[in-house]
Specification:
0% of the residues lie in helices and 48% in strands. It contains no helices and 11 strands. The chain is globular and about 40 Å long.
């Protein structure tokens, strides 16, 4: 399974970005998620979505600003990020889970596949 993330960049505080992550080489993927890692910090959960898009899960710090969605026909998950803040600056990683079900975990060890990361820099 390969996950290819894109869409990162430099944006001013209050601005928006849309990240995309395309999956390939898989037979089945259930939940997909976005995580981020800032310099000197541990990787943290941002948002996740079930295979049928019925269940979404967000970190408290991004609720109301970020929206996760997926298009199974394109094998792609998106993260729309609005009202960005300096503290959102990080490398963003997409992840996929192969276990059957609608669980959308927030722990990194519950995901089986990871993309290479895309850098988001928010200037204040």
């Amino acid at each position: 399974v390969q996950l290819q993330a894109s869409g990162g960049g430099l944006v001013q505080a209050g601005g928006s970005l849309r990240l995309s992550c395309a999956a390939s080489g898989f037979s089945f993927i259930s939940a997909m998620g976005w995580f981020r890692q800032a310099p000197g910090k541990e990787r943290e959960f941002v948002a996740g979505i079930s295979w049928n898009s019925v269940i979404t899960n967000y970190a408290e710090s991004v609720k109301g600003r970020f929206t996760i969605s997926r298009d199974n026909a394109k094998s792609t998950v998106y993260l729309q990020m609005n009202n960005l803040k300096a503290e959102d600056t990080a490398v963003y990683y997409c992840a996929a889970r192969s276990a059957v079900g609608t669980v959308v975990p927030s722990n990194t060890n519950r995901y089986d596949y990871w993309g290479q990361g895309t850098l988001v820099t928010v200037s204040s």
